[in-house]
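Folded chain entry
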Amino acid sequence: MKKIYELRVEGKNSDRLLETAKSDVRKYIKRCREKDLPTGKHFWHFMCRIGTSEESAVDVHPQQLTEVINATVAAGATQLFAHIEPVATARVYKNVAEPWTPADEQTNAAGEDASQ
């Protein structure tokens, strides 16, 4: 999603326009998370950029979107640029030579039952 939200429109409440922008961003992320993942991928990661324009946009962690949007508007922005790109990502396991497979879980469960 790459979109510019106008925050100062004559005849419209700027607070409502801001809430609409934040709501659209949340809805887009929620919609993307519901999509099927490609084989070998475990979750959706989001590359987010927020700013007053495409040139001035900065990278933002998805958990900080609302804070950065509020800070941008508090600085006097009249428009908000949002670029959110979903990326299917595989888990990275530390201290493990081979990636996890469902067969590993079944093997571990069988081993645990035998020890109890």
In short: Strands lie at 2-6, 43-51, 58-60, 79-89.
